[in-house]
Amino acid sequence: MKNIAIFGSTGSIGKNALSVIRRFPDKFRVVGLSASSDIRGLYSQIKEFHPSFVCIRDKESAFKLKKGLGSKIRVYSTDEGLIQFAQEKSIDQSLFAISGSAALAPLISSIASGKDIALANKEALVMAGPLIMRMAKKAKVKVIPIDSEQSAIWQCLYGQDRVRLKTIYLTASGGPLLNESDASLRRVSLLKVLKHPRWKMGKKITVDSATLMNKGLEFLEAMFLFNVSHKMIKVLIHPQALVHSMVEFVDGVVLAQLSKTDMRIPIQYALSYPDRLNGFSPGINFYNLKALNFSKPDCLRFPCLSLAYQAAKELGSLPAVMNAANEVAVSKFLSERIKFMDIPKIVAKVMRNHRNNKAPGLNDILKADVWARQEAYGLA
Hints:
- The protein is an alpha/beta fold.
- About 45% of the residues lie in helices and about 15% in strands.
- Strand 3, helix 3 and strand 4 form a beta-alpha-beta unit.
């Protein structure tokens, strides 16, 4: 029986993780649940899974929750409370489904406390990947990716000699705007951007998928997770989203991981590793599969990917700056204060204005994050 704590349990990844746990009550036990502000969703999950402790960032919501639950369950609140939540001794594995940079502090706290990590959040690694992976190695903590692409790479590399790795092929569906014209991209509506053709995800990641920034973040994430140079990773547009990524070795052999587009598959494997448990779907029907298409991404039409390539090449504090500026720009787009193509313009300008720190510590990264947000908020 593995004791699981879920950070971001009321979001898309968190709900899918709970559906996996629900299916295997003899394998997994929920000991902790955290949410940002969805008190109703969290309360419903508490009633079903009976965790020992919970966290809701909003203080007022935490007070209401504590009043309703009594003394049976420990209730944490605020960012500081989330860090304490991460240190609970009964946790065997922490699943991070929190979106954005908010995951960084509790992730570091979890690793420092010796918890194995199932990681769906990519922004924390983009911000401080080398630091996080060094900490995990020192603490002998496993960091198992949940993103379908990173999980695919991780599975393809399992048992292989990393020295013989030549290229990682990171696949992208292309998002909801893959075949839109330049003119259409300039006037595309929020509603259209949020209609992803393959995945059901949160709003922020769906916008990132449309700009291809999500693939840019995954590019950086893969560099740090698998300790490879940016020169060893190539992005491929693959609209069918069946090949979740591939690895090529020096002898020319390419290993690919294929599965249906269901986030429960990589979540389940991250929780059950090294075991494989019965799946949710019957799998791919290869007799009905007509084609698998791959193409090079168009960085002129989707410049966020080029910005990520730049950050991957220069490293230092630039990835954190890029990520922070993007979070602000996406937030502005979601509130319909800017147009879709303003997102890369804002990110590019903030990156240009940044004086890159080539060897940042954690405090330097956090300062760069704050600076970039202030810069991005000041732009139209």
